[in-house]
Amino acid sequence: MAKRELSDDYRLGIQRARKMLGRLQEEARLDVIVMIDFPEQLRAELEQAPADVRRGMEDYLACFVRMMIEGHSTPIVGNYDPTDELEDPEDFYGVGVS
After folding, report:
1. Is there a smaller number of Cβ atoms within 10 Å at the N or the C end of the chain?
2. d(CA 4, CA 30)
3. Would you call 1 helix, strand, or coil by DSSP?
4. Average pLDDT of 70-80?
5. pTM of this prediction?
């Protein structure tokens, strides 16, 4: 399967989610109480995002969680960028994707 073409908005969503988690980590280091609001902040970010931006954010978060669940490596908050894997889902998931 050929690589997927990721729109600029989709790529923006990936970067927006990456920065959001990095910012949250920094804030939580200063005061862990900010984590209480994280679900609401996440919902607000996703609800206001245009469709492709939202899709990029959701896929970023799904990839981040997948890395943690599989245990092969732990993604570094604020640095992890799965763009290459998302461009080539067959390679990323190890299966054919239609």
Report:
1. C
2. 39
3. coil
4. 81
5. 0.83
